[in-house]
Amino acid sequence: MKNGSLKGKHFLTLEDFTPEELRYLLDLSIQLKREKKAGIDQKKNIGKNMLLLFEMESTRTRCSFETAAPDLGMGTTYLSNSHFGTKETIKDSMRVFSAMYDVIAYRGMEHEQLLKMAEYSTIPIINGYTMHEHPTQMLADFMTLDEVYGREGYKGKTFVYIGRGGACCAFSYAVACAMFGMNFKFITSFMSLEEAVSRLTKEEQETFYKEVPKGTRIDGWSGAMPEEQKKFVRELYAKYNPQCTFTETEDVNEIKGADVVSTENWGFFTNKAITWLPGIVKYKDYQVNRELMERTENPDAIFIHMLPATHNADHSGARKLVDSISDPELKKFLEKGFEVTDEVFEANAEYIFREAENRQHTIKAVTYAVMGNDAEG
């Protein structure tokens, strides 16, 4: 790629770029990681400033931006409680931000808001997560696969995402696989809320309905990837990697042949513990455990996880749920892990925490590129 070809561009979604441009970012990430390990000065942007506008909690994404920016010589401002979007219009805020900063990192729920920000911004914006897509995470994952399999050694292999997270996490991986040339399978449950509740004990049902009245809509319950997203993914495959396949299914046995397996936490920790029970009924059979990994029939299959992971009951959110359950079998099941067991997680910790570290290097690469720096240094 030509020097500076991504200068000034927003990094909002993977599909805004070509596979060649994304490959450039992965190669740049690997270069910057190598330089950091070697102690090479990377301060190409002294005197420049980054705004971190975060409307959602964050660990790895925030840490990555707040360490990558100083490595590049940039100052940072973390902003989570401003007038933005509530007491001041997005347009006015963006005019202020564009005058004071050189690049913005944004993390929030609504992708439409991010697009509106980009419309009014005169400086690059980097998407640190919206409910549409998590593009910097995808770069970190594929950088990790580069390191595991060799540069582009993942091409033609099969990536399986299993469990919850169709509209954002599974969609993000599907887009990434379509762009980078991997087969993609999304294995999830289509169980309705009513069916899940019907499988609870009478006592559990009564307690659940006290917290969640009958007829209440639970956001994200479906789990499936929306039809318009599946259509979009198929179009990406047809355009860039027609030799690869895309599948969505409820059949856990479809994990056969997987080279890479991933999942996401079950995401019930925003409400009282009892309200999580139907979701556990829904996804229990999709837990990534040793038996599931054996079903791949691939002894070399690896497991990755973007984190945070509930691979045991050692944090307060998981503990609250486990302690509220009277069913000894379910309690025993969850003690071993929720979406993934501790056994599988720890056996693949090398990949998972390399994946986490690579968030820093890929975010640095995106920042480096949109600021107009040269990959050859």
Task: Give a verbal description of the structure.
With 377 residues, the protein is of the alpha/beta class. The chain has two domains: 14-134 and 359-370, Rossmann fold; 137-356, 3-Layer(aba) Sandwich (Rossmann fold), CATH 3.40.50. Helices cover 45% and strands 11% of the residues. The strands form two sheets. A five-stranded parallel β-sheet has the order 7-6-5-8-9. Strand 3 (103-107), helix 4 and strand 4 form a beta-alpha-beta unit.
- Number of individual domains: 2
CATH architectural label of the largest domain = 3-Layer(aba) Sandwich
- What's the number of extended β-strand segments? 9
Return the average pLDDT rounded to an integer.
94
Ends apart, CA distance between termini:
14 Å
Task: Give a short summary of the structure.
45% of the residues lie in helices and 11% in strands. It has helices at 19-38, 60-71, 90-100, 111-120, 135-149, 166-180, 193-198, 202-211, 227-240, 277-283, 290-294, 316-324, 328-335, 342-347, 349-370, and strands spanning 49-54, 75-79, 103-107, 125-127, 158-162, 183-187, 246-249, 260-263, 302-305. The strands form two sheets. Strands 7-6-5-8-9 form a five-stranded parallel sheet.
Which helices and strands appear, and what pairs or packs with what?
Layout: H1 19-38, E1 49-54, H2 60-71, E2 75-79, H3 90-100, E3 103-107, H4 111-120, E4 125-127, H5 135-149, E5 158-162, H6 166-180, E6 183-187, H7 193-198, H8 202-211, H9 227-240, E7 246-249, E8 260-263, H10 277-283, H11 290-294, E9 302-305, H12 316-324, H13 328-335, H14 342-347, H15 349-370
Parallel strand pairs: 1-2, 1-3, 3-4, 5-6, 5-8, 6-7, 8-9
